[in-house]
Amino acid sequence: MKLDNGTQRPGLVRREVAVRATAAVLGLSAVFGTGLATAAHADAQATPTGIVLGVGANESQRVVSWYSSAGTAQVVQIVPTSKLVKGQFPANTVTFPATVTANKVNGGYNGHATIDSLKQNTSYSYRVGVEGQWSPTYSFKTQDFNGNNFDFLFFGDPQIGSSGNTAKDGAGWMDTLNVALAADPQSELLVSGGDQVETANTETQWDAFLAPDKLRQYPWAATIGNHDVGGKAYEQHFWTPNTDRSAPYYNGDANTRSGGDYWFKYKNVLFIDINSNAYASGADAAHINYITNVVKTQGAGVKHTVLVYHHSIYSPADHANDGDNQLRRQDFPTAFSKLGVDLVLQGHDHSYSRSYLIKNGKKANPDEQPGAAEVFQGPGGVIYVTANSASGSKYYDLTAPDTTEDPNYGPDPLNPKSHWANSVENQEHVRTYVKVQVRGNKLVVEDIRSGTCAAPNAAVELGKVSWCGPNSGATAAQPVGSTVDKVVIHTNNSKADVDASAAAEAAWLQ
Ligand SMILES: [Fe+2]
């Protein structure tokens, strides 16, 4: 589809308040009844906004984060939905006190509370605030905690505001969430590829990003991108579990920028999320050390290890040969192979790619064919995925391999238009997201179209791109819900292999 191009151009001090001390031990911090709510009643100004459901440390936890107009005591109330009385929270509703902190930028406060001891296969209703000043009631549900099968969804660079039109970017973002979760309402996690917004501290962009109610119904596993890192709003909006905020995990000043590496377990998967903005001055080695420690201390009993960060190292488009990515391509892959990482989820390049099995930075099996529907991961085999734009705010076109830029990132002998590492590279200028089905020893990765060339598709609507559809627009756009790419990954589940790899990695790091 050819498009009519260019018709439109868009124009303190840190203060801990409330009940931090009692919120620290979350299992013990839940209180019953109305005592706390009564204590908080004096403040009717603490209007909660920007409420977002986040991941906890495991499948029995969720974290609720929000902004507040006041710094006084606030809580999350939660009850099994079946216990609501004519839509009202009963007297014995469980209450989790929040930690409320003064924002470092943009004024106001941010709060969060960790909800723990959730039961499996249960629908919950919750609200945020104080007596007399409650948020609307939201709901989420848990599923079977012991099952080895579950779905999660991965979203690349919503980057709200990137097109120059925040409303259009937000409309595409909301539509992708609605489409994805209508197609797969049983999904249990929404995983971020980073770049939630275009400009780190611009709250109108955060408002649009957080507008979809789906972000209050399914837990968001936040990832920091290069557009989020330059301010404190990212950390104010998202509280994440098991987070190491020491200096190596920031790209510069921790007082003015966001950062941190974190991990969580969800059923049989260990997720490790790192701040890839920090890469220079030994930060890559620090990330590897963090990942190594998490795998060593948390890897027992999990079937799969999924790594998430923003800057795709095998990106297929504009960022393919960025200097920082050339460095990460050297720094990361061997360590990931030795640590038994199964799947790496990345963003930044606003285009889709799925790698071949990569072992120690090289194609594991030279005979693996482009677009193979099924791959068998031996020890050290890692699949790297790059997500396209989930919002339609910006797309990058695929680029040809260029060994003058990076002699180590040349063409695929089996498909010379493509970079050697990638089995599939795709850009159609339509919104997509990645669905991952965890199925026992398999991970099924599928890139799915959540939009067409029609609105909402900000980059197309605003004339940022000149064509739309497969084959550079030569083919009609495919329908919403159709598959761009799908692969069944048979993961390497020999614990002995992984343990040996981890031990080798630990030795290698010394
Ligand atoms: Fe981005």
From TrEMBL:
* Gene3D superfamilies given in the database record: 3.60.21.10, Purple acid phosphatase-like, N-terminal
Which PANTHER family would you find in this protein's record? ACID PHOSPHATASE TYPE 7 (PTHR45867:SF3), PURPLE ACID PHOSPHATASE (PTHR45867)
Q: Where is the Calcineurin-like phosphoesterase domain?
A: 152-352
InterPro entries listed in its UniProt record: Calcineurin-like_PHP (IPR004843), Metallo-depent_PP-like (IPR029052), PAPs_N (IPR015914), Purple_acid_Pase-like_N (IPR008963)
Q: Which GO terms describe its molecular function?
A: acid phosphatase activity; metal ion binding
Highest classification ranks of the organism: Bacteria, Bacillati, Actinomycetota, Actinomycetes, Streptosporangiales
Q: Could you tell me the superkingdom of the organism this chain comes from? A: Bacteria
Its recorded name reads Metallophosphoesterase family protein
Q: Where is the Purple acid phosphatase N-terminal domain?
A: 48-142
